[in-house]
Amino acid sequence: MSDILTGDRRMRDIVQLAKTVAPSKATILIQGESGTGKELVAHLIHTQSTRASRPFVAINCAAIPDNLLESELFGYERGSFTGAMNAKTGKFEMANGGTLLLDEISEMDIRLQAKLLRVLQEAEVDRIGGRRPIPVDVRIIATTNRNLGDCVKEGTFREDLFCS
């Protein structure tokens, strides 16, 4: 999908803004109520960016339990925990060169947010049980149906991640 068709003026403005920011390397936050097309806008940004030929990987942070979300995002090495019979590539590595959509980022555990902040700052991931960081070149687009400023005040979202 490379375009969104709409008759709504506000949505047309959002589409135009998405196309304007798409070529940048900026991390993007899309806030809006459930069912308003946040993921469609994220996909539009990806398809209009210089990363369009690279992977677009989406993960719903609200749908995966906290203890599994870390391994889904960062991957793990064989033997790093009971049941880890093989190494697993995480979503960051899968999206390397492309875009990673963190859908409903406000639902991510605050401890995991610290690891996410490190990835944004260092451009590398540490697999669970890994011995060395793995470089990644990933653009992050995050969505939420909550006001992240309020989440920061409540202590459920890191201010340094919100402002990064």
Structural overview:
The protein is of the alpha/beta class and 164 residues long. The chain has one domain: 3-Layer(aba) Sandwich (Rossmann fold). The protein has helices at residues 9-21, 38-47, 66-74, 91-94, 110-122, 148-154, 159-162; strands spanning 28-31, 56-60, 99-103, 124-125, 134-135, 139-144. The strands form 2 sheets. It has a 4-stranded parallel beta sheet. Strands 4-5 form a two-stranded antiparallel sheet. Helix 1 packs parallel to helix 2 (38-47). The longest helix is centred in the first third of the chain and has 13 residues, at 9-21. The radius of gyration is 16 Å and the shape is globular.
Task: Briefly characterize the structure.
The protein is an alpha/beta fold. 37% of the residues lie in helices and 15% in strands.
